[in-house]
Design goal:
Blueprint: H1 4-22, H2 27-36, H3 57-64, H4 67-80, H5 83-118, H6 130-150, H7 159-162, H8 168-186, H9 194-209, H10 215-228, H11 234-238, E1 258-259, E2 266-267, H12 271-289, H13 296-303
Antiparallel strand pairs: 1-2
């Protein structure tokens, strides 16, 4: 990711720049933009739907493979629609690009922490627990961002009610974008309702995870560990705590050196340094994405072929699905 609240609040920060570029006229267009800031992440939640879970790997594929082709296809798919649908789709694609901007900038930092924890020699806390460690890091940062930006915790700012807003019209327009993109970029025809179903499932999971007091989180986490025999609970690592703190154990506010696991470059950037780096770059990315000159070469220059994880992925890089 980063997690749901960080992406939403980043999108709200970029909203004025996106609106100046695209001329948002309606609440639906703003909602579409904010939904776009969640990027492909809703697709992960298709795993809870027996009929649609076969499309959930698309989320991983979009994160990892062919970022330049993906953004070009997103833009082209939106442009092929007409009228209101076109405006909603363009707003969504702008938000999607902001998701890429934040993910590609901050993910190497998250993976640095994840790799360090999983290699620290703690019994049971190895690569087998990587997904739970990743979620724990991002949840902790998410709580910090929420309180730092809004002065609120999840007791008042509930993810399931404050994020993922989108009307049927918005979801219908974005469904079309995903159908075309999956076909053009990843050579897969998908169910035309894939994205809208994923958003509904994401909303459901956020409602289930909602536990400001921690009581429901403890019960669900205990049941998960009992049923899965896992030592660490994914539910407990993803459910937000009511934490009124301006810091995180993972924010690197002391500017200690860390190594990008993909480029091996050493940095002293903190989380907020990386946030502001992405925030500064976002308007340029949006301007390039919606430029009349956009083609694959321009998109490669725009993205430097860096995917959502922060690693390099060429336009025709192979992928597994």
């Amino acid at each position: 990711m980063p997690a749901i609240l960080t992406h939403d609040l980043f999108g709200r920060d970029v909203m004025d720049d996106a609106s100046d570029l695209l001329g948002f006229r309606t609440r639906d267009e703003k909602d579409a933009f904010l939904l776009g800031n969640q990027g492909p992440d809703p697709l992960f939640y298709l795993v809870i739907d027996p009929l649609m879970r076969k499309w959930s790997p698309l989320g991983n594929v979009m994160h990892a493979a062919r970022p330049a082709r993906l953004l070009v296809a997103m833009r082209e798919a939106a442009e092929r629609l007409e009228g209101r649908e076109r405006r909603l789709a363009r707003a969504y694609v702008a938000g999607f690009a902001c998701h890429w901007q934040l993910d590609s900038t901050i993910h190497p930092f998250v993976y640095h922490w994840q790799n360090g924890i999983c290699s620290a020699g703690v019994p049971g806390l190895d690569e087998g627990a990587a997904s739970r460690v990743h979620a724990e890091i991002e949840r902790d940062l998410d709580e910090m961002v929420l309180f730092s930006v809004t002065g609120q915790t999840v007791e008042r700012y509930r993810p399931h009610s404050r994020v993922l807003s989108a009307s049927r019209a918005v979801l219908a327009a974005v469904d079309k974008v995903y159908f075309y993109v999956a076909l053009w970029v990843y050579d897969r025809p998908i169910d035309p309702r894939t994205f809208s179903t994923a958003v509904h499932e994401f909303r459901l999971v956020q409602t289930v995870f909602d536990s400001p007091s921690g009581r429901k989180r403890a019960v669900l986490g205990g049941l998960e560990r009992l049923l899965t025999r896992e030592r660490f609970s994914l539910v407990r690592s993803m459910s937000h705590r009511s934490r009124a703190e301006l810091t995180s154990d993972f924010d690197n506010r002391g500017h200690e050196p860390w190594t990008n696991p993909f480029t091996h470059e050493v940095s002293r950037a903190s989380f907020w340094d990386l946030w502001h780096e992405a925030r500064t770059a976002a308007p340029r990315t949006l301007a390039g994405l919606f430029s009349a000159e956009l083609d694959l070469d321009a998109a490669r220059a725009l993205t430097a072929d860096v995917n959502f994880e922060g690693a390099t992925s060429a336009p025709d890089a192979p992928y597994t699905w």
